[in-house]
Every structure is written in structure tokens, then in C-alpha cells.
Amino acid sequence: MIVIQYADTLQVMENKSLIVESKTISNASISLQGAMPGKRYDRRTVAVIGGGPAGLMAAEVLSQAGVKVDLYDAMPSVGRKFLMAGKGGMNITHSEPFDKFLSRYGSRQAHIKPLLDAFGSEALRAWVQGLGIGTFIGSSGKVFPADMKAAPLLRAWLHRLRVDGVSFHMRHQWLGWSGRMLRFQTPEGERRASADAVILALGGGSWTRLGSTGAWVPLLAGRGVSVEPLQPSNCGFDVGWSEFFQSRFGGQPLKSVQASFTSWAGLEFCQAGEMIVTADGVEGSLIYKMSALLREQIAETGTATIYLDLVPGKDKQFLVDRVSLPRGKHTMANHLRKRIGIDGVKAGLLREVLSKADFDDPLRLCEAIKALPVKLVAARPIDEAISSAGGVSFEELDERLMIRSLPGVFCAGEMLDWEAPTGGYLLTACFAGGRVAGEGVLAWLQADCNVTAKANR
Ligand SMILES: Cc1cc2nc3c(=O)[nH]c(=O)nc-3n(C[C@H](O)[C@H](O)[C@H](O)COP(=O)(O)OP(=O)(O)OC[C@H]3O[C@@H](n4cnc5c(N)ncnc54)[C@H](O)[C@@H]3O)c2cc1C
Fold first, then answer.
1. Which of 3, 48, 108, 160 falls 20 to 30 Å from 305 in CA-CA distance?
2. Which ligand 1 atom lies nearest to the CA of residue 55?
3. How far is Cα 166 from Cα 48, in angstroms, rounded to an integer?
4. Which residue is closest in CA terms to ligand 1's atom 13?
5. Does ligand 1 lie within 6 Å of residue 433's CB atom?
6. Which pLDDT score is estimated for 332?
7. CATH class of 37-231+385-456
8. Element (H, E) at 145
């Protein structure tokens, strides 16, 4: 047996040709002695497939523990959706209290809690700061990097990962397994690779042009892993506007409105905010917040009707009093603008939804201004959605995010079966999942080492 002291190991790590040599020697049985903390995993290789926030975070945990990490991604570069998320101002997490934060994950709170316990909003902010990028809390409590952008953060992060020794293999589309080997489609043809453990962080099924295509679903389902169908989340909805309304108001923001909705299961939503009238229907932050409820309602009953309060600050009697004032020669549209300040897209919406008789009746008009029914008929296609619901069922995973039926295969990020509104909750759970999966692999490798060591005694 050849014995290599820790110092020798460091030397071979600095010289790739020697690493190859040491591997050859290792086949002849090597014992690493005097291993320093963090060097326990030398000679262990982990494949991280998917270079979004979840996969990169897993790669960081593993590489910092001394594991050799091969990171594969189908795209020419990593973090494309992360960069897109940074375009309109990178909302990385939220500053609200833990319980409220956790409530954003709806029916999956129990599964997300351990991830946030391990790496929650505060830890994430500290981590961002550790990359040399300050964060600040916006007026709504949302947390942003100092310059609101994703690119500087990603640049600093990739630099750290490279320094830590992560090997990036771009244009490697994972195709599944052949026996224990991982199969990848590359520009040079199919390539196979092996690893001691695998972390899948392949994203959801929206914005496929950024890499997360959901093509992994049949690969895991084919191995008997239960995957809930991917569905649009944080998405717009179709209404079916008239041609006139669509051409006149499509693309216009509907500001300072309050939306209410009660689901077939009795769940209630009522919140003020902003949305956008699109050519097909509605989208925007207020709609995204309700999207899970609306999607489920449409699946259950075929449509979902939301009620819009177009002037949340004013009560109905005030409106009735003002609208009932004599209007002289003014049209009702002019009268509305003068008396209660409703014009533009809000007035157009009233004309679109109400019959002429209701529009001309002050009482019925004011009732509609406070609770205008808008019937949504379908969610927009998943590819347009900010994120997706569905994915690998938590029941398939142990507490380390390892697929129980596929020992050594871990999952993290949006490909798991949870959803959350925008507001930093998506990224936080992806980062946290990546950390937990990375630490899970370390624990699993460690347990595996112990078993091997015992067996060799
Ligand atoms: C427009 C937009 C704005 C957003 N804004 C925000 C925001 O402000 N705040 C927020 O919290 N979240 C936001 N999000 C959501 C957030 O970006 C995602 O939830 C997050 O990126 C998911 O991370 P992930 O690591 O799970 O997957 P992804 O970031 O989707 O990464 C998955 C990776 O896997 C790779 N991959 C997929 N399949 C394969 C395969 N078969 N083989 C190899 N590689 C593969 C992909 O190329 C990709 O690089 C936004 C999303 C969009 C689209």
C-alpha cells in the first residue's frame, strides 16, 4: 500500500498531470493519512447538473469541502435565468419575519422550512455580502443587491467557484443514465461520465430558451420517480378581451387596484397592487400573487372570476354621491373622470365588462367600480410564466434532498414540487435547496466513506 501524507496531496492538486498519476497509483490502493479538515473528500467526484442558483450553490458547498465538482449545463453559459431575473431589478430575497416568509410557500411550507432553517433570508444576504456585493431593503421589504443587478453577483460567484476548483462543462445536455454512467449530449456527440454522487438542479419548465426545458421529467419518471406535472406559476391569464379593448388598452398598467378572489375551496385573497392589461388578458405582480389559486380554480371549475376595486381608497357611498350629481351635457365617461377621477384603462375596463344599461346607472356603475368581475378563462402557456409549479414530489426525497429510490442522486431548486410568488421567495428557496443538497451529499459521502472504511478494516 502507498501512503500519501496530506502535504503530498496538496502538491498533486496543484499539478493536473500528477493528479492523473495519483489516480493511477490510487488504483493500486492508496491510503490518505493526516487528512486536514475540509480535505476528507479528496478523490470524490460529484456531478452537479444544472448551473442555475441551486446547482451553483450546491457546487460551492461541495467544492469548499474539498470535493471535486464537475458542473454540467446544457447551455453555453450558466445562470441564464438568474441573469434574466436581474433584468428588472434583482429581487434576491425578502426581509419580512420568518413565519410570514415561510407562509409564501403555501401547502409546501413543511418541506421548505428545513431548507430556510439551514439557509434563510438573513444567511442569503450575508452570503451576497461575502461576495463583495452590498444589499438593501426596498420600501416594500424586498431585498436587492446594491446595484439591483444579477451580473456582478454572478461574475464574482463564478470566480469564487473556479478558484475553488469547480470544473464547468458547458453544452452538456443530460440525457439520463446508462447503467451507472451519466449520459450527456455534447456538440462532439454523446459523452459519458461517472461520479460518486449526482445533484440534479435542472430548473422548472418556463422560459425554455434560458435552458430550463423540463426535459428531465421523463428521465426521472422513467426511473420510477414521482413527478407532479409542471404548470405555469407567477403567470398571466387569458380573459378574451374584445378587439376594441385589446387594441386600445393592451399593454397598459392598471395601477392602485385591489383584487379579491374566493376559491372553490373557500380560500380567500384580497390585496392591493398593480397589474397589466395584456392583449389576451391580465398579468403583473398582483395577478402573480394569486396565480396558484387562480390556476387551481380554472382546473376545478373551468374559469376563475376575480373582483377588482378600481378605487380602493373611496367607499361606495362616496362614489354614488359623486356620480349621482347632475352631469349636464357630459358623457358618462367625462362625468366619471371629473367626479371620481376614473379614466383611461379603468374607464375602458368598465365599458368592456358592463352592459350599456349598467354603465349608465349610477348605482350599478358604482357597485362595479368597487367590485368589477373579470372572468379568467385560462393560464398563459408555461413558457411565458416566471416560474413553474409541480416537479419532483417531496415524498420521493429524504431530508437531505436525496431521491430515496436512487441513492446518491439529489435534487434541488425549482425542479422540486413547490411554488411561491415573486418577491425573492423563488431564489431564496433555490439557494437554500442547493445548500441543503450539497451538505446532504457531503453527509452521504461521509457515511459511505465510513462504511467503506469499516469494510476495509
Ligand atoms: C423573467 C424572470 C424574472 C424572475 N425574477 C425573479 C426575482 O426577481 N426573484 C426571484 O426570487 N426569482 C425570480 N425568478 C425566478 C428564478 O430566476 C428561478 O426560480 C431560479 O432561477 C430557479 O433556479 P434553479 O437553479 O432551480 O433553476 P434554473 O435557474 O432554471 O437553472 C437550471 C439550469 O439547468 C440547466 N439544464 C436544464 N436541463 C438540463 C439538462 N437536461 N442537462 C443539462 N443542463 C440542464 C439549464 O440550462 C439551467 O442553467 C425570475 C424568473 C424569470 C424567468
1. 108
2. 25
3. 10
4. 85
5. no
6. 84
7. alpha beta
8. strand 142-145
- Please give the Cα distance from 406 to 454 (Å, whole number): 23
What is the pTM for the complete model shown?
0.89
Stated length of the chain: 457
pLDDT mean over 98-110: 97
* Whether the CB of 101 sits within 6 Å of ligand 1: no
DSSP 222-276: TTT--EEEEEEES--EE----HHHHHHHTTEEEEEEEEEEE-TTS-EEEEEEEEE
Other Cβ atoms closer than 10 A to 107: 10
Residue 273 CA to ligand 1 center (angstroms) comes to: 26
Looking at residue 454, its pLDDT comes to 59
Task: Tell me the C-alpha distance between 314 and 365, whole Å.
Answer: 14
Tell me the β-bridge partners of 305: 375
**What is the model's pLDDT at position 434?**
98
pLDDT band at 453 (very low <50, low <70, confident <90, very high): low
Q: Is the CB of 290 under 6 A from ligand 1?
A: no
Other CB atoms closer than 10 Å to residue 453's CB: what's the count?
Answer: 9
Q: Which residues of the chain are in CATH 3.50.50.60 domains?
A: 37-231+385-456
Binding site membership of 382 for ligand 1 (Cβ less than 6 Å): no
Atom from ligand 1 closest to the CA of residue 427: 11
220 close to ligand 1 (CB < 6 Angstrom):
no
Contacts of residue 94, Cβ cutoff 8 Å, sequence gap at least 6: 101, 104, 121, 141, 142, 143, 423, 424, 425, 428
8-12, 126-130, 359-363, 391-395: least confidently modelled range: 8-12
Q: Indicate whether residue 35 lines ligand 1 (CB < 6 A).
A: no
Q: Which three cell numbers stand for residue 343?
A: 379614466
User: What is the CB neighbour count within 10 angstroms for residue 248?
Assistant: 16
